[in-house]
Design a protein that fits this description.
The complex is a heterodimer of chains A (391) and B (305). By secondary structure, chain A is of the alpha/beta class. Chain A folds into 2 domains: 2-143 and 277-341, Response regulator (Rossmann fold, 3-Layer(aba) Sandwich), CATH 3.40.50; 147-270 and 355-380, Response regulator (Rossmann fold, 3-Layer(aba) Sandwich). Chain A contains 13 helices and 14 strands. The longest helix of chain A has 20 residues, at 2-21. Chain A starts with a helix and ends in an 11-residue tail after the last strand. Chain B has 305 residues and is mainly alpha-helical. Chain B has a single domain, classed as ABC transporter involved in vitamin B12 uptake, BtuC, CATH 1.10.3470. In chain B, 75% of the residues lie in helices and 4% in strands. Chain B has helices at 3-34, 41-59, 62-83, 93-115, 141-163, 165-175, 177-182, 187-209, 219-234, 239-267, 270-295; strands at 118-119, 130-134, 137-140, 215-216. In chain B, helix 2 runs antiparallel to helix 3 (62-83) and helix 2 crosses helix 9. Chain B is globular. The relative contact order of chain B is 0.19. Classes of the chains: A alpha/beta (391), B mainly alpha (305). At the A-B interface, helix 2, strand 8, helix 8, helix 9 and helix 10 of A face helix 1, helix 4, strand 1, strand 4 and helix 9 of B.
């Protein structure tokens, strides 16, 4: 009995080996993201757009039928890591993707690297992975973590703001963001304030801003913190004297929805906007709204692009997903029509692309949306690529 | 750093403290009288905010929406007490913590299913700007309203607890539950009532803070921690303690955040001050709690002698 079982197992193993030598008949994607809890809105947008892209493609990616395994990391690094292990080792996925938050992603994806599974990042693109620790199995589809802040700093310089007040939460990403802003801002820093993570009330900070009388105020306050801050900023009457600038994700649809009219006239920087005039984007925005009855956020645009990128690579290698080098080359070529327009991958596999200035205004139907005003950076990469040893 | 700035920051501290008081008052009553740790208190705050946001939009009137949200949330709170929490009174604190933590998760998902992850709530247009309080000192009108509402509710609670028969029963229950029971007080009805009052206070806080804070799923958890700090400082079961504790926490937190980084800058090298200032300011309320626990472990105004 035992021998027969062994024989059977061996038989299975050989047939699987045989099957894996040729082209695969389907592509398996492991998608892990934050889908529950207070920070779920971002992950949900990425997931919805990713699955929408596959649906519009007839349930296929690169001509192969796509199987998408979805997991919720619950905003916890350990849960994210467990799911990555399961998808990579047990389900043997061809690609891993999905994570929103850098800290959860960094804890989770080493298992993908060790097993030579390519991670295609729809959002997080931390600076270590752009520089010294750049990895052949890591592709950042969206934007380097510093990029929005650098663009905001560049805009504040172009606009000639003489003094800018900076506020961010007191943690690593907060310090990195203000560092990115300062890298391209030539004016005077009125003050640089680090607040508590998850802070609710900003009355104290706003009173200090009023006393400092800066021309502009740059905030990096993701999620609920930003919603609190912008509401209170407008109520304090400061919006008449001080121009508020945020990174693009700080005033996108997921923030506009709960804040409302107080958002009008706010400037932000991004790599994508609803009104980008290219056929891919027009199709994406229309289909997303039709499917989900809401406007897509920048995160949704990133999730959609991630699916299109994988689609293009699978098609390029004609389904031979085991040839990892070929898959990498195909991904790096990025032969697809991105909703952001043209972009290309740098040698560290981070994007080189344009960044634009947007303002919150009303569209033809009177809804609050971000409108593109000007291009801040053309073909902008990141500051860390010179430390990357990859060719 | 002018005296006007100090005055403005003190007002900010008072306003934040009074809002914390609304949450802490309900929490301290439930904890003190029923000996029940209710982590889902923050969920009632969230529910109050979502009710208020919906009703303000439906009625088109801010005042009416807020006033309707209060009984709605009180009703939801009492239903919760009768349906779930009542069975937990006899259990130990660990079971209560586990069960009410589960309630937080359930409440979050239910709210997400019913309303979505967030709602928009704007303040009435007449109060949306600043008023000139003193020459050179504009202050947001809406925050003044919050201070007014907070003080009014505090006064109302004082009258209710100190001057009425129900208040007497509540005080009796808080200081010695068994004795009150032996004296023939209908504890079960009293508990339901107290829970309803606690939920109503949550609704006032949620509705009033809705236009300033994000009305979103999970909004209750972050503020609940501060409410617990307040009742530990004030003394469990004491409304007066909750008021003093809340204003103390609001003041210390606001003043600390506003001035500590600059204060450090006066006598420390800048690179150290810029790192230590925000770090210490953010833990200042917990330091305060530690000091109070060390000097007076029972809190400033304990209900039980």
């Amino acid at each position: 009995m035992k021998n027969r079982l062994l024989a059977l197992a061996a038989g299975f193993a050989f047939t699987m080996l045989a099957a894996s030598a040729g082209a695969a008949d389907k592509v398996k994607i492991g998608f892990v993201s934050t889908l529950s809890g207070p920070s779920a809105a971002l992950g949900v947008d990425i997931r919805d757009a990713f699955t929408l892209a596959v649906k519009l493609n007839g349930g296929k990616l690169g001509g192969l039928s796509a199987e998408i395994l979805i997991g919720d990391d619950q905003f916890k690094p350990d849960v994210g890591r467990q799911l990555a292990e399961k998808f990579v080792k047990l389900d043997k996925v061809d690609f891993l993707t999905g994570y929103v938050f850098s800290n959860i992603m960094l804890a989770s994806i080493p298992v993908a690297f060790e097993n030579k599974v390519i991670y295609v990042s729809p959002n997080a693109a931390p600076s270590p992975l752009a520089g010294k620790q750049c990895n052949p199995y890591f592709f950042a589809v969206a934007w380097p973590n510093d990029a929005y802040h650098e663009a905001a700093g560049q805009y504040a310089t172009q606009k000639g703001y003489k003094s800018t007040y900076l506020i961010a939460p007191n943690y690593q990403a907060g310090k990195d963001s203000l560092g990115g802003f300062k890298r391209f801002y030539k004016g005077k820093i009125a003050d640089e304030v680090y607040t508590q993570l998850g802070q609710l009330d900003y009355a104290a900070e706003l009173a200090q801003v009023r006393a400092a009388k800066p021309e502009a105020l740059y905030i990096f306050l993701p999620g609920g913190m930003g919603i609190n801050f912008i509401k209170q900023f407008v109520a304090s009457g400061l919006s008449k004297d001080v121009q508020l600038i945020t990174p693009g994700f700080g005033s996108d649809q997921d923030v506009i929805r709960p804040v409302g009219d107080a958002m009008l006239g706010l400037f932000d920087t991004s790599h994508w906007a609803l009104d980008f005039d290219n056929p891919a984007n027009k199709k994406f925005v229309a289909e997303f709204e039709k499917e989900y009855k809401r406007l897509p956020s920048v995160f949704a645009a990133q999730g959609y692009d991630t699916a299109l990128l994988i689609d293009s690579a699978v098609r390029e290698v004609k389904g031979k997903l085991d040839d990892k080098e070929a898959v990498r080359r195909a991904l790096k070529a990025a032969k697809f029509a991105s909703v952001r327009g043209n972009f290309k991958f740098n040698r560290n596999q981070y994007p080189i692309q344009n960044y634009v200035l947007r303002v919150v205004g009303r569209d033809a139907q009177g809804r609050l949306v971000n409108k593109t005003i000007a291009t801040v950076f053309k073909d902008h990469g990141d500051a860390y690529v010179q430390d990357c040893a990859m060719k | 750093m002018s005296w006007i700035l100090i005055l403005e920051q003190s007002l900010n501290g008072l306003q934040f403290g009074l809002m914390l008081f609304l949450l802490a008052a309900g929490l301290t009553l439930v904890f003190g009288i029923m000996d029940m740790i209710n982590l889902a208190h923050g969920s009632l705050y969230m529910l109050g905010a979502f009710f208020a946001a919906t009703l303000v939009q439906a009625t088109g009137s801010f005042a009416l929406g807020v006033l309707l949200a209060i009984p709605a949330t009180a009703l939801a709170g009492m239903l919760l007490e009768v349906a779930v929490l009542r069975t937990l009174y006899a259990r130990d604190h660990l079971s209560q913590v586990l069960a009410t933590f589960a309630l937080i998760l359930i409440a979050n998902e239910v709210v997400r299913i019913v309303w979505g992850s967030d709602l928009q709530m704007t303040m009435p247009a007449a109060l949306s700007g600043p008023v000139q309080l003193l020459p050179g000192m504009p202050y947001p009108a809406y925050r003044l309203l919050i201070i007014g509402v907070g003080l009014a509710v505090a006064a109302l609670l004082y009258v209710l607890v100190a001057k009425t028969r129900i208040g007497m029963l509540v005080r009796a229950g808080a200081s010695n539950r068994e004795m009150a029971l032996a004296m023939g007080v209908n504890i079960q009805r009293l508990f339901t009532l107290v829970f309803g009052v606690g939920a109503a206070l949550c609704a006032v806080a949620g509705a009033m803070l809705g236009p300033l804070f994000a009305v979103q799923v999970g909004m209750g958890e972050s503020i609940l921690i501060l409410a617990f700090v307040v009742i530990v400082i004030g003394g469990i079961g004491s409304i007066r303690g909750a008021l003093v504790g809340a204003v103390l926490v609001g003041m210390v937190d606001t003043i600390g955040r506003a001035f500590l980084p600059h204060l450090f800058g006066l006598f420390l090298p800048p690179q150290f001050a810029s790192a230590a200032g925000p770090a210490i300011a953010s833990v200042l309320v917990y330091l305060l709690m530690a000091v109070v626990l060390f000097v007076r472990p029972q809190g400033l105004f304990p209900a039980r002698g």
